[in-house]
Design a protein that fits this description.
Layout lengths: L2 H9 L3 H19 L2 H11 L1 E2 L9 H4 L7 H22 L1 H32 L9 E2 L3 H14 L4 E3 L6 E3 H18 L7 H20 L6
Antiparallel strand pairs: 1-2, 3-4
């Protein structure tokens, strides 16, 4: 076995992950360097806004390259780097990009469904001043990557930072999924799109199962 080849996925950043990192950083810089009026236009134009019509369907993709603040960007990009490079080597660059985008769009679809349910509930209660929902961030796609890593490498050990304990990847994914579900149910009105995260995992799971059924991937 070529030892250098064996360790290559741990050292090098594969092309799709590298380009996703660059695009997300460039979009974040654009958001923050634009004059105030243009910054507002940029956000309103490319963030995922409820409802999405045919003319703004592109928002189901564009929103995942935008972030609310530096910490939002940093943690998403750290997870993309940490898990995405392994998953890209597993799936191949083309399939990885498809997977990433499907998870992100799937997260948007679920989030829009949650927004619709919230609006319907407010209307039923007689509210006339309805909130405007906007969503940004790569979190839905990143949660899809977490799921893929857990399914493709279930027994790999993941070291958590807080608390500092080691878990097998399969349990890491299960615990994270349960926490997101609990967060989504318990935190009505939260700024965290818990159900979008679950949507990314759900669409990722379905796509991986589809590819496995077609004998295009093995795990």
């Amino acid at each position: 076995m070529d030892n250098n080849a064996y360790y290559r996925p741990q050292i090098h950043i594969p092309p799709v992950v590298k380009n996703l990192l660059i695009i997300n950083v460039l979009v974040f810089l654009t958001q923050n360097l634009l004059p105030a009026g243009l910054e507002d236009w940029f956000y309103q134009t490319f963030a995922l806004s409820f409802p999405v019509g045919l003319k703004t369907l592109y928002q189901t993709v564009s929103y995942m390259f935008m972030h609310a603040n530096f910490s939002h960007l940093f943690f998403n990009m750290f997870a993309l780097w940490m898990f995405g490079r392994i998953v890209e080597y597993d799936l191949g660059s083309k399939r990885f990009l498809i997977y990433y985008l499907v998870c992100g769009v799937g997260a948007a679809v679920i989030q829009l469904g949650v927004n619709y349910a919230e609006i319907a509930s407010l209307v039923a209660q007689g509210y006339t001043h309805l909130p405007r929902f906007t969503t940004v961030g790569a979190s839905g796609a990143v949660f899809g990557l977490l799921l893929a890593y857990g399914m493709l490498h279930p027994n790999n050990v993941v070291m958590l930072m807080f608390p500092p304990i080691a878990l097998k990847a399969k349990w890491f994914v299960v615990i994270y999924g349960v926490l997101e579900l609990m967060g989504g149910v318990a935190s009505s009105g939260s700024n965290v799109a818990h159900f979008a995260h679950l949507g990314g995992m759900l669409f990722g799971f379905l796509l991986l199962r589809y590819w496995k059924k077609k004998n295009q991937i093995w795990y």
